[in-house]
Amino acid sequence: SQTIHQWPATLVQPVGSPLSLECTVEGTSNPNLYWYRQAAGRGLQLLFYSVGIGQISSEVPQNLSASRPQDRQFILSSKKLLLSDSGFYLCAWTTGNTIYFGEGSWLTVV
Amino acid sequence: GNSVTQMEGPVTLSEEAFLTINCTYTATGYPSLFWYVQYPGEGLQLLLKATKADDKGSNKGFEATYRKETTSFHLEKGSVQVSDSAVYFCALRDSDTDKLIFGTGTRLQVFP
């Protein structure tokens, strides 16, 4: 079966600290992978998407970066977090017209 | 670029009222269209989808028709329930790039 795992589920980090959120997919190969952020009271914003290993498209200028070191692994990172990075981060992948979301990661920057 | 525009919320209705949440899109090519729902404290769930013009997606009493002539995909339900209270997201998937673009979401509040 096809599944997607995302961790950690919750994270409280001080301003200026680094970040690493990881997402892995099982049961498929060469998926399209996405990172979204949902800030409090706001909609879902596409941050990055990837159609293959090492291929990352950034949708908005920001303090974050993404990497895809393996076919089914997608990592969201930051070298120095800002308060405005707080939010709910979702990893997703697609096959055909089916979209699968991870469980999400709540990030609070303090 | 591609974009999705949803009506602003919150939408407040009494139980058994008729629901419409408007969604329009801008896209090149022939995108697939989706409605997602996010219940309080939970992640996003696919509600319904349509992959080509004039298709109607339906699920749990909700319907939306892919209207290419008006570039719309409005969500409707004939009789809402309190349990339908959630945030609803309209989304499109670009046929050329596979990018998924979401609207800002519309909060629905249904009161008994």
Structure notes:
The complex is a heterodimer of chains A (about 110) and B (about 110). With about 110 residues, chain A is mainly beta. In chain A, about 0% of the residues lie in helices and about 60% in strands. In chain A, strand 5 and strand 6 form a beta hairpin. Chain A is globular and about 40 Å long. The relative contact order of chain A is 0.33. The mean pLDDT of chain A is about 90. Chain B has about 110 residues and is an all-beta fold. Chain B is about 0% helix and about 50% strand. Chain B has strands at about 5, 10-15, 20, 25, 30-40, 45-50, 55-60, 60-65, 75, 85-95, 100, 105-110. In chain B, about 40% of the residues are buried. The interface of A and B includes residues 44, 90 and 103 of A.
Largest interface: A-B, 21 and 19 residues
| Main sheet specs of chain B | 6 strands, mixed
Shape of chain B: globular
Secondary-structure element string of chain A: EEEEEEEEEEE
H/I helix tally of chain B: 0
Number of helices of chain A: 0
Q: Any key phrases for this structure?
A:
heterodimer, A: 110 residues, mainly beta, 7-stranded mixed β-sheet, globular, B: 112 residues, 4-stranded antiparallel β-sheet, 51% strand
Summed up, what is this model?
Chain A has 110 residues and is an all-beta fold. Chain A is built from no helices and eleven strands. Chain A is 0% helix and 61% strand.
How are the secondary structure elements laid out?
The complex is a heterodimer of chains A (110) and B (112).
Chain A: E1 3-7, E2 10-13, E3 19-26, E4 32-38, E5 44-52, E6 55-58, E7 65-70, E8 73-78, E9 87-95, E10 98-101, E11 105-109
Parallel strand pairs in A: 2-11
Antiparallel strand pairs in A: 1-3, 3-8, 4-5, 4-9, 5-6, 7-8, 9-10, 9-11
Chain B: E1 3-6, E2 11-14, E3 19-21, E4 23-26, E5 32-38, E6 44-50, E7 56-59, E8 62-65, E9 75-77, E10 86-93, E11 100-102, E12 106-111
Parallel strand pairs in B: 2-12
Antiparallel strand pairs in B: 1-4, 3-9, 5-6, 5-10, 7-8, 8-9, 10-11, 10-12
